[in-house]
Every structure is written in C-alpha cells, then in structure tokens.
Amino acid sequence: MKLRVDLLDAELGDLRVVFIPQKVAEELDLIPGGKARLYVNSRETTVLIAVNGSQGKVLRLSKKLFKELGEPKEVDLKPHIVPASVTYIRKKLDKVKLGEKEIFEIIKDVVSGVLTDVEIAAFVSAQLSVGMDINEIIYLTKAMVGTGNVLKFDKPVYDIHSIGGVPGNSKVSIVAVPTIASAGIFIPKTSSRAITSPAGTADTMEVFAPVEFTADEVTELAKKVNGFIIWGGTLGLAPADDILIKVEYQLRVDPVSQMVASILSKKLSMSVQNLLIDIPTGREAKVESLKEARNLASLFTQVGNGLGLSIRVGITYGGQPIGYAIGPALEAREALESLMGKGPTSVREKATAIAGLILEMAGQAPKGAGKKVAKEILRSGKSLEVFKEMVNAMGGNPEVKPEDIEVGKHRVEIKAPMDGYVTGVYNKPLTIIARAAGAPVDKGAGILLHVKRGHKVKEGQVLMEIYSNSAPRLQEATKLVSTLKPISIEGMLLETYPEYV
Amino acid sequence: MKLRVDLLDAELGDLRVVFIPQKVAEELDLIPGGKARLYVNSRETTVLIAVNGSQGKVLRLSKKLFKELGEPKEVDLKPHIVPASVTYIRKKLDKVKLGEKEIFEIIKDVVSGVLTDVEIAAFVSAQLSVGMDINEIIYLTKAMVGTGNVLKFDKPVYDIHSIGGVPGNSKVSIVAVPTIASAGIFIPKTSSRAITSPAGTADTMEVFAPVEFTADEVTELAKKVNGFIIWGGTLGLAPADDILIKVEYQLRVDPVSQMVASILSKKLSMSVQNLLIDIPTGREAKVESLKEARNLASLFTQVGNGLGLSIRVGITYGGQPIGYAIGPALEAREALESLMGKGPTSVREKATAIAGLILEMAGQAPKGAGKKVAKEILRSGKSLEVFKEMVNAMGGNPEVKPEDIEVGKHRVEIKAPMDGYVTGVYNKPLTIIARAAGAPVDKGAGILLHVKRGHKVKEGQVLMEIYSNSAPRLQEATKLVSTLKPISIEGMLLETYPEYV
Asked: Using CA atoms, how far apart are residues B143 and B241, in angstroms rounded to an integer?
C-alpha cells in the first residue's frame, strides 16, 4: 500500500520502527511489533510496525531512517515474507557450507536492512559456533566489498592494519604511515573509531586534523600526499561491516571469520593490493598465544591470497599496552614525540618494525633490512616532515607541538602501595578505566602509565595518572582501580584476580 | 533516575521501546536505539530507548508493556550493563557445557525481559549448532518450570502430547482425552494454539467450548471432570517458552533441546507425572525417518526420567494428514463424528492407540491390550458421554451435532486433472494452503480431503475442498494449489516438486 511519509517527533537510533494508523495496519494484516516490507522505489527493507491513533494513509518514521531511505515522499508498505537469506542462515546453523551466491544474498540483505538484528545475530552466532572455511570467508569478503563503494587510485596501494585489542596501539600507525610514505610508497590508510578500546586510530589522528572526507576529497588528498590516515566511516566502504559489528558488540562475540572478512573487505574497498597485518599477541590481547597467532596469520594469508592480495603478517608483543599513553590526546602527544625521535623506545621499535616490512614488500629495502631503513628515516626527521605535510593536507595545524595538545584538565595519581617489581600492566582493566574516564569521546581522557612490566618501584611512587575533563567520571574511573587492579606488584599476585568483561 | 510513567498513543506489540525526553537521555548518557535497565520495585528488565521532544521526568510506554510491568506509576531507569547471562550464552556458542545455575540465569533473564531478542537469538542458535547434552536439557527444563507457575492437583496426573507437524492431528486428542478420562484417569490436558500449523488442539477445542481459564478455574474444573482440554497460554506455565518460540519462529529454527524442554516444562508445570509423547513420523513431518524418531524418543525418555517423569513414547505414521479434515471447525466436526463411532478409521485408530498406551501406564489395561480396551470404550459411547460432560463443564454446548458446526461459507473444489492412483498427499503444501485460506484465526477455514494416498481417482473427481469465510483469501489459497501441488497422482511425479518454506 502506498503511504505518504511523515516525520516522527522522536529519535529511534538504529531501531527501524515505523508508525502507521490502525486502519492501514488492519488492511495490510500487520500487527504491532510485527515485521513488514518497506519499498522505496525498488529497494526493499524490513521495518517493525507500531500502530498509532492517527488517520489517513501515512507512515511516520524517525529522521535517521528517513535519511537512510533517501528522504522519500512516498513509500510502499507490504506484508512481511521470509527472505531466502534466512533459509541460508538456518543452513549455516545446520553446519552446511554456504556457496558464493548464498553468502552474497545474506550480506546484500544485511546492507539493505531486509534482515533484522535477530536474524543477523543468528548469522554471527553460526559463524562463531559452526565456523567458515577459507572459501566461505573469501565469499563473505567479496560480498562485503561488492555491496559497498570501492575507491580507485592510479598508483599501487599499500596499507597496514592492526587487529587491535591492546591499549595505546593507535599511535603506532601515526608514526609508521608517514615513515612509509616518505619512502615514496602510497598508503591511504583508513582507520576506525574505537568501539571497545579507549582510542581508535581515527580518534587519535583527529587530535591533529579532521579525519572525515568524501570520496572526492580522498582522491584530491591522494594527489597531494603519499600517506594519510582518515576515518573509513563516511566513505561507504563495506557497509555491512558496521551493521554486523553492532550485533557482535551486543553479543560480545567476534567470530574470526567475520573479523578477517571485515578487515580485508575494508582494505579491498580502498583498492589495497599490498597489506601488512599486525597481530598483537599476549595476555589479555585479542590473541593470547603464539600458536593462535600463527593460525590467524595463516588464515589471513590464505584468504588474502585467494582474493588476489599480496599479504604479510607481523606478530607483535601485545601483553601490555604499547608505550605509556592511553586515550586519544595522550596517545597523540606520545606519537608526535616519537616522530620527533623522543618518547618511549617501544613505540618507535614497533612502528619502524611495521613500516620496515612494508618497505621490504615495496622493494624499498632488502629483505630483513626494512626495520633498519625505517629507523633511519625516522631518525633523519623525514617521518616528521611528511607527517606535517599530511596534517596540513588534511586541514590540521602542522606546527603543533606535543605540549600544545590538551589533555584532561582533571588528573589523579595512582601510587604504589608497596616496594617491589611490577609484575603486570594489564590491558583489559586499563581499557575499562580509560573508558570510564571518558575516552574516546572525551579526547583528553585516558591514562598515562609511569611504569611497565619489570620496573622496580618504591612505595608511594606514581604508577600511573588518570586524566579526564569530567570530575565525576574521573572519580568513577579512580574507584575502579582498587577493584580491577590494572598494575600488579610482586607480592600482590597472591590474591585472585577479579573477572571483568 | 526515577521517572513518572505515562502511556504512549501507540501499540508496539512485543517491542520494548520506551520514550524519554532528550534531557533525561543526556543525564543518563543514553542514546536513541540503545539499551537501558528499567526497574519496577526490584524487578529488572531491559528496554530500548527512543528520545522525544517532551519535557519533565517522564517515561512513555505502550499499554502492553505497562501491563506487563504491573501498571507502575513510577519506574527507575538506569544505564545498561551487560548481564552475566550474555556471558553464558557466549560460552555456549564457544561449545562449553553450561551448568544448572548458568542455564537458570539465562532463562530467568529471558522471562524478566533482561535479555533482548538479539541475545535470545544467539542462545537459540547455539542450541541448534552446538547442541545440549541430557543434563543441560534437564537444567533447561527445570529452569523453565522454576520461572513460572506450577498447578497442583490432589490426584495422579496423566497427559498426552504430540510434537505435531502433521495437519489434521489436533482432533486426535479430542477423541483420546475423554476416552482416557472415562477409565477414571485424570488428564487435565493443556494444549497450544497453532503457530505454524492450520489448527492447534486449543484452536479446535475452542469450536466446542471456551479454552481460556484461570488457575482457580482449572482447580474447579478438576473437581467436576476427569479430563479436559484447555489452552495453556493464560496460566503462566513456563513463560520462557512463549518468548523463546517467538524468536525461533523468526529464525525458522526449532532446536531439539529446546523442543524437548518446552514440552516437558509445560507438562511438569501442570504436575504431570505420567506422560505419553506422540512422534508423528514420515515425509514432511517434523521427524522424517524412523531412526530420527527413535533418537528423539530416547532423548525424551532420558530427560523425562531425569526429571522424575514416567514417560512413554509412541511413534506414529505422519507422512500424510491425519483423517480428512484440516482447520479448526472441520477438524472439530471430524472429531465429533469419530467420538460417535463414525468418520475415518485412521482417526479412531490413532486416538485409541494413544489412549490405550495411557490405559496401560495407569494399570487400566494389561500391557499390549490398551488399544483394544480403548476401542471398546469408544465403541460403547462412553467416550462421547464423557466428552459431553467435559464440554459442559468447560462452558460449551454438550448437545452440539456435527452438522451444527459452521464451516467456511465459501468453498472451492479441486478436481483430479487425470485418471490414476494418488501417490502423495503432502503435509507442507496443505498446511500453507489451509493457512492462506485463513486457518486458524478463521475457524471455518481449512481443507476437506476426499482422497488419501493409494486411492484410485478418475479425471474430474473431487480431490479436496478448500473452505474460507473470506472470498479473496479463498481465491489466494486456490491459486497456491497449482504451484504447491498438495496432491500428486501417478504420472504427475515426473516434474520436479517445488520448494516451499
């Protein structure tokens, strides 16, 4: 039935609920809370029905959904029928391998909104409990690329990507990308905002410059500089990813097949041909054992090769935070210091190791000598120079100094309760505390560590500082320190370590 | 934050969306489409947030949710935290066995509304793809009983239950229950309304008498008669079941662990001690092979025994509809005829076989002679007499005659396109056609078969009639006959049979 579109006086976020009059509901045999198919021109999406007391042939929806549908004046509402993709999801739950067309159909229906969150949850669950083989992951990746935009460039495209999971990691790309670019290698890095971490690379880069660009603006950027770091969210690359991630986040699951497909689809959508994957490995990282890391590396390589990508994987240490700073502004400051040749050794070591592998892939350094060449570039000041060009091209202030970067105006020091050696600096508690302090939305919020594993401390010595722009948030974050125990000192480990999610 | 409750001018069905002013959302750090915890006294439930332009400390919700929450004047809204049960669901997806407390926590959160449909979808998916062992199904059943009402009676309780899936099956209980009751056996049968079939036993029984009773009314009924057939939906028995079924229905899945737990929990909530399970087996039934039926029988027996139930399982033929009538009124008429000793042999055979097994369990017939005794009861008119008492006690008209039962006022005859033998009368197409005609909501809608498998037909002979009270629905149902081919005649089978969901 054709219905006139009107706006609702309410925001519903991602809820696809539309309001229709009782009479329309009756005529279409629709019930409150039930599903219906909504057509805008020939594009189909599934909506949930709310029935209100209004009159006429009108459908009310939220401003967000209105925009997503392309601001239609009129829509066509029809009774729900079960899409074929639900049958394919059920097949996967029944442990049947899916073919290319079936996976494409599922992803197409994810993107268009034909599949509801409940059905997507079953798809994600099936990936976790049944799993996908190499071919299925290849199909999944292709489908995710094929249902979104693809940006093209007129030169070979390189990129680096860390699977994340370790706080403080976002600054690595900020040091590595200009180092790679200064060797004449084109690296248009798309990055993500934090979902569960204190700072995504995009959040940290945004401290220096805007990170949201249109496809045309990206093309222009590519003409000006060889490297940049932008947020991938506005470019419509592999849009299935965002929808799937929201459901995964609700279920607190992250199936490996979906992770591999998500990463590779975003990269293929940027026409990346040569990719380095970083797998931080260690206690409380996404990958905890070397064995697991090797399996994942092999999976990335097989799937990547199946998709025509030249791919290398670096397994790095992720058993404690990278460097000392956690949170966008604090990490931005540490990254800038690293580009100036200062700051913690560990950041410079990791960034040059990553950059070195790309230099080798691009033939800009002999095999095994990449890190040495990268270190030389960083030491010479070339990385910093290219970083300034990059910030300038992106619309930021290239002359910013570390001390110009504003961090949270409230600050608390956490001190050592006893003498001893630091036996652990833990990723998960630090992540929870930094987020409680306000990161990543409050760019100044976060943690500055003063110690790392193995350091000797005296009672009363500062172990870490927590920063925030909100006094109540800082208080809440500080309270978490005593329950989550983010830093342990020899002797403290006798007590059991609490569980956290 | 304490919020005053107000009613929304819209019906939302099962959607747990609440509307709050922008200012409240900001203070609680809630986003549109996101989750929050809602407390009424100490009872917690999860709601989804919509933000509107209103003022003050007010929360607006649908009348349905308002009732479910006990019509509170004030509620307490808090930011969402991930319930522990989500962690247990994730464990199950990771193929870890769950303990009794973990499963109880999941089911408790299903019933209270703490778990959302997305999370429940993951739980159902895990049951399908990972599976549950005997102990887990026992825990699941116990949890489902423990989170609902339990009715007690002062005499031993017997019951029969068919797992369903075969059209025309609802009349079997209507013949079997009075036959069992007339032997002095107490059988307070709770039954369900159709979800995917053309008629649940409750839908068909409702043609004779009201089927909705309160717990107190059931206690009164039990004093008057030894047997009755009521709808279980109003008694608050194992309320998790309804919520889980709605999600299973959306995903078109029916995990065996959940099916067993659902059936047994409903029965244990009625204090059933002695149970007969009927597994109709055959092409297009829920269970297609005898091997599968035996496995399921063994599962029911092991779980039932683990729960202290005395249980027997009958495997019956379900490869075509039971009897000739499909749909509430048509089946009610055929059931009444069967009670009068008329109607199709197959209905009387199945009903007495089922009743006979209960007679044996209750010691009212020697082992192996139950069916013979049941047939004698039916033939003697005692079943009909007890049925009339039962209808009378339930508030219906005990003197109703088969010809008094109104069937759909519109009717179409489907005729044989050729001479030959009937090679198949198919459950799934007949179900779809009967539902398209309006069953079970339109009680008069359905199908009256004129032939069964093996019958010889002449070209132009009537194969079946479709009934409906709606002319357009009848037309739609009739159109489906040519595509779904519900009855095949020798020679027709050369063409491929279409797929249907």
From this structure: 11
Q: For this structure, is A254 an active site residue?
A: yes
- The residues near A465 (Cβ < 8 Å, ≥ 6 apart) are A411, A412, A413, A414, A447, A448, A450
In the block, residue with structure tokens 């054709």: A2
Cα distance between residue A249 and residue A109, in whole Å: 20
Produce one character per residue of B231-259: b if its CB has 16 or more CB atoms within 10 Å, e if not.
bbbebebbbbbbbbbebbebbebbbbbbb
Average pLDDT value for chain A: 93
Residues of B in contact with A95 (CB under 8 A): 129
The answer to whether the Cβ–Cβ distance between A51 and B11 falls below 8 Å is yes
Residues of chain A with C-beta less than 8 angstroms from the C-beta of B10: 19, 32, 50-53
Q: Which residues from A are below 8 Å from B15, CB to CB?
A: 17, 32-33, 48, 50
- The structure tokens listed for A185 are 């290698």
Q: Is the pLDDT of residue A132 over 60?
A: yes
* pLDDT tens figures, A149-203: 999 999 999 999 999 889 999 999 999 999 999 999 999 999 988 888 999 999 9
Q: Where in chain A is the domain with CATH 2.40.40.20?
A: 2-79
**For B294-335, what is the HEC assignment?**
HHHHHHHHHHHHHCCCEEEEEEEECCCCCCCEECHHHHHHHH
Give the residue range(s) of CATH 3.40.1030.10 domains in chain B: 158-236+258-394
Say yes or no for a CB contact (<8 Å) between B19 and A10: yes
Indicate which residue of A254, A404, A419, A442 is catalytic: A254
The CATH architecture assigned to B2-79 reads: Beta Barrel (2.40)
Banded pLDDT at A491 (limits 50, 70, 90) = low
To the nearest 10°, report the CA torsion of B261, B263, B264, B270.
Answer: 140
Q: What is the pLDDT at residue A11?
A: 93
DSSP H/E element including B420:
strand B420-425
Q: Which residues contact A404 (CB under 8 A, 6 or more apart)?
A: none
Q: Write out chain A residues lying below 8 Å of B253, CB-based.
A: 90, 93, 122
CATH of B158-236+258-394, one of 3.40.50.300, 3.30.930.10, 3.40.1030.10, 3.40.50.2000: 3.40.1030.10
Nearest-CA neighbor of A10 among B109, B303, B12?
B12
Delimit the CATH 3.90.1170.30 region(s) of chain A: 410-494
Residue of B nearest to A128 (CA): B93
- Nearest Cα to B350, choosing from B388, B386, B320? B320
Residue B437: enclosing H or E segment and its boundaries?
A: none
Distance CA B251, CA A91 (A): 11
Residue A280 DSSP code = E
| Contact flag A90-B252 (C-beta cutoff 8 Å) | yes
Query: Where along chain A do the CATH 3.40.1030.10 domains lie?
Result: 158-233+271-280+306-394
Nearest partner of A80 among A42, A117, A31, judged by Cα: A31
What CA dihedral angle connects B336, B339, B340 and B342, to 10 degrees? 90
Q: Tell me how far apart the alpha carbons of residues A60 and A18 are, in angstroms, rounded to a whole number.
A: 6
CB contact under 8 A, A252 and B128: no
Question: Domain A158-233+271-280+306-394 carries which CATH code?
Answer: 3.40.1030.10
Please list the active-site residues of B.
254
Q: What is the DSSP string of B111-132?
A: HHT-S-HHHHHHHHHHHHHT--
| ipTM of the complex, rounded to two decimals | 0.79
Q: Give the pLDDT band (50/70/90) at residue B491.
A: low
Chain A, chain B: beta-carbon pairs less than 8 Å apart: 143
Q: Record the tokens describing residue B121, joined without a space.
A: 């979808």
Where residue A33 falls (left for φ over 0; alpha for ψ -120 to 50; beta otherwise) is left
For domain B410-494, give the fold.
Aldehyde Oxidoreductase; domain 3 (3.90.1170)
Q: What is the amino acid identity at position B203? A: D
